[in-house]
Design a protein that fits this description.
alpha+beta; 2 helices; four-stranded antiparallel beta sheet; about 110 residues; elongated
Length: about 110
Amino acid sequence: LALVLLGFMATTAPLARTADDSARRVAAIELARARLQEIAVDPDYDGLEARYEGVEPTIPGFPGFRRTTTIVRVVEPRPNGRRLDYQRVTVSVEGPGLQTPVRRTATVAAP
């Protein structure tokens, strides 16, 4: 019985650790997704960079997590006199226990 219990404990410890790591990764993915969604619905296209770009060293409700947002605006003239205008938004989230940061990128087009 003792051997069975030791075997059971040896198996459940790694499973619990894996579940905890997964929960942190899901939290980081949600933090990145939420920021991208917030930016995508912001009506002030020209003010996105000033309002959102930067580092959030603390995030309420997520101790130890840090979110970095970078925005690159691309404006290319077209032969027909119009221009291509979009912003590439990348959100990176680091947190306790994450081996690598979670990164998500989206493109926001000019209205």
